[in-house]
Predict the 3D structure of the following.
Amino acid sequence: MNIQPQIDPGQEPSATQRAYLAVRQMILTGEIPPGEKLKIENLRKKLDMGGSPIREALTLLVSDLLVERLDQRGFRSAEVGRENFAEILKLRCHLEEMALRESIAHANQVWEDNLVISHHRMMREPRNNVERFEDLHKTFHMNLLAACTSKVLLKFCNQLYDLNIRYRYLAGRALDYSTRDIGSEHTAIMNAAVDRDTETACHILLDHYQRTGAFLERLFTSEAAE
Amino acid sequence: MNIQPQIDPGQEPSATQRAYLAVRQMILTGEIPPGEKLKIENLRKKLDMGGSPIREALTLLVSDLLVERLDQRGFRSAEVGRENFAEILKLRCHLEEMALRESIAHANQVWEDNLVISHHRMMREPRNNVERFEDLHKTFHMNLLAACTSKVLLKFCNQLYDLNIRYRYLAGRALDYSTRDIGSEHTAIMNAAVDRDTETACHILLDHYQRTGAFLERLFTSEAAE
DNA sequence: GAGTGCAATAATATCGATTTTTTCGCAAAA
DNA sequence: TTTTGCGAAAAAATCGATATTATTGCACTC
């Protein structure tokens, strides 16, 4: 019998996978602006593949709430807005707290090691490569929750993370964290987590989100006032 | 300009939509058992359509967590299990409580009317048509939350509801509610909701879920012991 | 007799073309 | 001037066929 055929990372990704990652990245970074029509033909040419994998990728993105499907009228990237941002922030705080408590409760050595490693990598990454940094940042936050045993909860947290990241890209340069010491906040969360200090870890994590959230919301307000 | 072209219910559904609803129903009711391979060719013949809408429907179901995709190896219906059931129950309790509080906070006349109507219809439906009853039951519960302003939260609740319903069908005849007065529980929840009595409504709702959960869990245990 | 490698088979993933539906522009009527 | 009703163009949805990839069975070696 084959040994771990499903974990093999060597195989090249399917067209669907490529399309999914490509379109997702374009939406997250804002290269495709909110509300824009996603024409199959355009994406076909841009990504050089048939229509089927494109459609399938867009369908996957619909469930991520990054794309909306209009029956018989194709797809468009999801709209953004202040209310949407606020609800995502609120849900994230609730669900990530649940997940973090579960995660610390089921913590083990492997979890701890991965957490420390991802923290280290994130801290060492220069901030000028935004996409690369955001990737490591996400990995760190997800590793924090990784020992949580509820697959569904983790999926929700993951989805919400991506929905949120979009707003950070939209905020763009304004959000270079220059006014806050984000690094030390992350370190504090990690330390509390490895100490199995659930209350402290949750408190700092939520505070971390609330602050970033308030920052983005202010930005949103001033922009809307233009 | 057209008037409300998107709300028009008269148009016949797309093939994708038909496939989605058909396969979803088969999985929820257990006609397709957990873990079963979903072969495109079989479904093609059964639903009399091409492969594309089938694949698209299955992709939609992946995001509902009712179907799993095995890269390059097709699709299968999601597995069930006691842990899975437990995590869904727990998440539902958390999220529906959030949603119910929000919903009551934003309650208005339309919401109240719809809630009363759906309650009435559910109560009048004879229990022998299980699928029809389950449909009305879901409508009632979703109407309870409908005034909640967070679209994402409602989507999550909806998903979790469907994941849970599967276990009720799996339990089958055993769960005919004969030992409990489910009707009065629903009525009590509705009354508390229309009275805007948030605490009572939440309390009864959660109790309602916990009881049904405990009932199903017992069933699971005795079955696993065979 | 157990394991290995290779073809035959089956199933998936993808493509290109066709069908259906929507959108858009323009002219005719109110 | 605004509405209404075509028809052309564009786009989406779907199909059937092909290319790719996994699975299966069987002969062959050790």
The two ends of chain B are 64 Å apart (CA to CA). Chain B touches chain A at residues 6, 11, 14, 17, 52, 55-56, 59-60, 62-65, 70-72, 83-84, 87-88, 90-91, 94, 98, 149-153, 155-156, 160, 163 (CB under 8 Å). The mean pLDDT of chain B is 89.
